[in-house]
Amino acid sequence: MKISSTKVSYKVGLMELLFCSFLVLKLCGVIDWSWWWVTAPLWIPYSIILFVLIVAFVVAVCTNDE
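Now predict its structure.
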C-alpha cells in the first residue's frame, strides 16, 4: 500500500510583507498613518488593474465608434 502526502505551500509576496510591516508599526505606535495607507499594499494593486481595464475598455469603445 502506497501512502501519498500532499504538500501545500503558500508564497508571501512583497505586498503582503509590506502590509504586515505597516500593520505592526501602526499597532506599536511607531507610525501615525491613516488605516487607508496601512492597508494600501492590499488594495492599490487591484485599483491599478481596475484602472487599466477601464482605460482599455474606453479606448476600445472609442476606437470602435466609426
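The chain has one domain: 14-64.
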